[in-house]
Amino acid sequence: MAFEQIVFYAFSAVLVFSAGVVITVRNPVHAALFLVLCFFSTAGLWLLLRAEFLAIALVLVYVGAVMVLFLFVVMMLDINIAVVRQGFARYLAVGGVVAILLIAVMAMVVGGDYFGLERTPVPEPIGEVSNTRLLGLQLYTDYVYPFEIASVILLVAIIAAIALTLRRRPDSRYQEPGRQVEVRRGDRVRLVSMKSEERR
Amino acid sequence: MLENYLPILIFIVVGVIVGGAMMAFGFILGPHRPDTAKLSPYECGFEAFEDSRMKFDVRFYLVAILFIIFDLEIAFLFPWAIVLKDIGLFGFSAMMLFLGILVIGFIYEWKKGALQWE
Amino acid sequence: MTEFLQTIFIGWGLPESLAIGLTILLQIALILGVLFAAVAYLTLAERKVIGYMQVRVGPNRVGPRGLLQPIADALKLMFKEIIIPAGADKKLFLIAPVLAMAPSLAAWAVLPVADGWVLADINAGLLYVLAITSMGVYGVIVAGWASNSKYAFLGAMRSAAQIVSYEIAMGFALVGVLMAAGSLNFGQIVASQQGEYGLFSWFWLPLLPLFVIYFVSGVAETNRAPFDVAEGESEIVAGFHVEYSGMAFAVFFLGEYANMILISALAALLFLGGWLSPFQGWTDSWLGQSSIIWMLIKTSFFLFLYLWFRATFPRYRYDQIMRLGWKVFIPITIVWIVVVGGLVMGEIGPWFAAA
Fold first, then answer.
1. Touching check for A137 and chain C: CB below 8 Å?
2. DSSP readout, A78-110?
3. CA Rg, chain A, in Å?
4. Quick one: DSSP state of residue C15?
5. Which member of A3, A33, A177 has the closest CB to residue C323?
6. From CA C22, how far away is CA C34, in angstroms rounded?
7. B43, B82, B83, best to mutate vs chain C, most C CBs in 10 Å
8. For an engineered disulfide with C89, which of B6, C6, C42, C146 has Cβ 3.0 to 4.6 Å away?
9. Interface of A with C in 34-93 (CB under 8 A)
10. Smallest CA–CA separation between C336 and chain B, in Å?
11. Which residues of chain A neighbour B58 with C-beta distances below 8 Å?
12. How does pLDDT run across A164-176, given as a tens digit for each residue?
């Protein structure tokens, strides 16, 4: 057990440290990469809780996909830090109040009243069962309704993404492979029969 | 279960260390004779005339967003695939409905030309 | 082997935790040693094979028949200067190659090479491989951005978009395998391909479209010809690693080749029955026995395909690559997942017959 705790504290330390760096470092690309480290150590913590599938899915979805988009955006937007920092002093008061309120709300919800250790009994260890399998057995039968809602949300996301980012450029030209395949010789080549010229 | 993950953790750490060690070796063994021409970014012999971190076609963002959505879809398909034999026809049709809704989205993006590259 | 090593270490008077740690480290060293040797000789094989395909002999000066060539290359790269370009983000520039290589090594932790020969036999093996290989894209993006060079940045963005596009097709193809096998564990996936029809019991036959798509996506994923626009010499010099030299370049190179071997080994495990013999059920002699040799033969076959593709196919254009990934592969995989679903539900034999 002792070793497990060492690993837990190691992951937690990395998590807290990198989360701190994410919000303090100047360069947005560095911040995004530290966020990746955050997710990675979170996955480690989840794994310690035996949430095998969730931990790996976190790496797959957040590290492998979401953060790639973040990196794309911060790399290409070229955020000018000086401009962003301009209004810092002016907004400090309002921002500070909002931050304190948020922290208070979070403390109320995440505090011992709702999430305390005595709130929920410690689950019985289930032994060597693949928890991906158990998740599957539940998700597609007992929780089928939320599952279908998830697909509708994803559909909305697809449509929203296209509506927000798709801009057609008037000058771009496309190839249509379907039409290329359908082309017959007759469309392109015309055989003309001509009399040969008389030799002078 | 956790004892199976211990080798993986060690392997990841070793992988990073091996990579770092190889880079360090290169630094120790290789020469260091920098000069301006050598250190300038490669542009076929021209001087660099603008910042290389430029604005990009918005299409790359779209690919990344669509990738997230489909990646989530795969994450949903994985547990389903391994229990397919146990959840029977009900689970099968649940996933078919899920896939059907997402195929609508896929057809939409196809028709909108979001998958078109010039 | 694990218990054997552990008992030896405990016999030396070491405490149990240390014995376990040492055993794991030794096994990792063994895997990495074999892997590095394989990478080194894959580079030689590549040059030889392509050489003969182009009616040349390939490298033949260093050592007998050029056999020492990879070692000479490694030594040369080691003694070259690592140039850090003036405008580069120094830290990220140096971290990028490690980010590219570490995932392709770490994925080997769960890959079995024969029955029970695996370092970490986890339940979610395939999911782990998919997750860890999706980290490889960071090396590419970070390298391109940190170099502060236009070619590098362009190459990085192109190849990142390409890698993520093909990862979807690959993921869908893997879902087909999972449906057929009913498990994420590699040992069980191979075991479920066992049958009395030899090589026709393997998954490549019922999953043929997924098998082809998996391997082609694998080629695209590793940025190899004919999908190597990321480093199209004629367009953007060498892509994301233009600015890298010496060992820094070698680390990228190693990661790429380790990834090729990984994809080949995965293809062998998932679709060609891993260490099962193709003659299983037909003969009881040694030919019908499953062994690591079959696994090696199958993996080498896919590696040869990699080289063969490179020697024969012209490079795709970028819009064609994206079209192939999104408009051809993804629809086919979705349709075939439904088909496989039907086959599994209907328990169509010999692959899906109720056990």
1. no
2. ---HHHHHTTHHHHHHHHHHHHHHHHHHHHHHH
3. 29
4. -
5. A177
6. 18
7. B82
8. C146
9. 36, 52-53, 56-57, 59-60, 63-65, 68, 71-72, 75-76
10. 12
11. 165-167
12. 877 766 666 666 7
Q: Give just the sign of the alpha carbon dihedral B62, B64, B70, B76.
A: negative
Picking from A99, A140, C272, the residue whose alpha carbon sits closest to that of residue B86 is A140
Spatial separation of the C-alpha atoms in residues B115 and B109, rounded to whole Å:
7
Torsion on CA atoms A62, A68, A72, A75, rounded to nearest 10: 90
Closest by CA position to A72, among listed B59, C72, B6, C202: B59
Task: Say yes or no to pLDDT of A152 above 80.
Answer: yes
- Complex ipTM: 0.85
Alpha carbon distance A133, C185 (integer Å): 11
The amino acid sitting at C126 is: L
Helix or strand (DSSP H, E) at B87: helix B59-112
d(CA B36, CA C83): 11
Closest of B35, B29, B21, B22 to residue C83, by C-alpha: B35
Cα four-point dihedral sign B33, B39, B43, B48? negative
* Model pLDDT for residues B79-103, shown as the tens digit of each residue: 998 888 888 888 889 999 999 999 9
What is the average per-residue pLDDT within C149-169?
Answer: 84
Q: Which of residues 97-116 of B touch C (CB under 8 A)?
A: 99, 103, 106, 110, 115
- Of residues C126, C131, C180, C135, the one with CA closest to residue C160: C135
Distance CA B21, CA A199 (A): 82
Name the residue facing A137 among B67, B75, B86 (closest C-beta): B86
Task: Give the gap in angstroms from C-alpha A116 to the nearest C-alpha of chain B.
Answer: 25
Residue of A199, C274, C176, C92 lying closest to B53 (CA atoms): C92
Q: Tokens at residue A71, please? A: 């990196």
pTM: 0.88
Tokens representing C1?
């082997």
- Peptide bond before B34: cis, by omega within 30 degrees of 0? no
Is the bond into C206 cis (omega within 30 degrees of 0)? no
- Residues C291, C282: Cα–Cα separation, whole Å: 16
Burial C199-231 (b: 16+ CB within 10 A, else e): bebbbbebbebbbebbbbbbbbbbbbbbbbbbb
- My answer on whether omega of the bond before C85 falls inside 30° of 0, hence cis, is no
Amino acid, single-letter form, for residue C34 = V
C164 vs B86: CA distance, rounded Å = 32
CA pair distance C182, C154, nearest whole angstrom: 41
Contact partners, residue C197, CB within 8 Å, separation at least 6: C281, C350
Mean pLDDT of all residues in C306-323? 85
Asked if A60 and C134 come within 8 Å (Cβ–Cβ), the reply is yes
Residue A46, both tokens: 């989840």
Asked if residues C237 and C151 have their Cβ atoms less than 8 Å apart, the reply is yes
- Using alpha carbons only, how large is chain B's radius of gyration in Å? 25
A69 → chain B, closest CA residue: B64
What are the structure tokens assigned to B19, written together?
């990579």
